[in-house]
Amino acid sequence: MNEASAWRVELAREVAAVYAKHPQVRMVSLGGSAARNLADAYSDMDMAVYWAAIDHKWLEGTALQPSGGRRFTYRPLFDNLVVVEQYFVGEAKIDVAHFAMAWWEQSVDDVLERASMDDEKQEVLDGFLSAIVLYGEDEYERWRTHIAAYPAALGRAMIERNMHFYPQWVLEQQGLARNDLLGFYATLCEMMRNLLGVLAGLNGMYLSMEKPKRSADLLRRMAIAPADAVARFEALLAGDRAAAPADLAALIDETLALVEQHAPGVSTARAREVQRLQVHPVEQKPAFPM
What we know:
Elements: H1 3-20, E1 25-31, H2 32-35, E2 45-51, H3 56-59, E3 69-77, E4 82-89, E5 92-100, H4 101-114, H5 119-130, E6 132-135, H6 137-148, H7 152-162, H8 168-176, H9 181-203, H10 215-220, H11 229-238, H12 244-262, H13 269-276
Parallel strand pairs: 2-5
Antiparallel strand pairs: 1-2, 1-6, 3-4, 4-5
Helix pairs in contact: 7-9, 8-9, 8-12, 9-12, 11-12
Organism: Kouleothrix aurantiaca
Protein name: DUF4037 domain-containing protein
Domain DUF4037: 132-209
């Protein structure tokens, strides 16, 4: 484990011990970049505390203050079933999300039983699977096993919701040719995000489409993906922008082929039709008989 991740895990264990003293706390974990050994000097610590019932009076008393924690955010959400705290301990920023088990159980059921694609819930479930357990290991592992059974209906829904891509000429003619770089990159990023959504569905991975993070790590963890996906994704943004439309079109074509191979019940016909769509320059008003 790299040094930036290692000391964050150590500090998280110390923080977890503070919350674990409360009798209503069932589980504590550390997620995010530190849990995946990707932390750097600017990484936050993303912790989660799961409660039988959240003790708001106890939480409002700034639990980490005696250990030098300086809280700058305390925000109850979802009818007080979730609370978000943000602290500084020294210069380290710690985000602590508190979840009542009632909210957690409902969220898991919404995603697994009803194929909810709610971004908040997708992000929480993804973080749960990759987190380091700091307290309540036995219960945590039972939940982890349950969540790891990614439902086929959710995979199909993720593919179908995100399988929307503009044809190549949109980037070339409505972006680059007009020197509309803001529009060009906005459209490019939209389609890259949709590609990630389709691939997440194919791979059975929970993903928040609102704020996908660390796409390179995400792609590396995907067993089903276009060849050299990480390098090709990075080149779309960091490489020659004139080559990006054709390069993106190739990634789209290969991703649709993967859908046809691994999710044959999902039709790619409309996506293929849009990719073939061509437009031609129009210099004069066409006839429109009345």
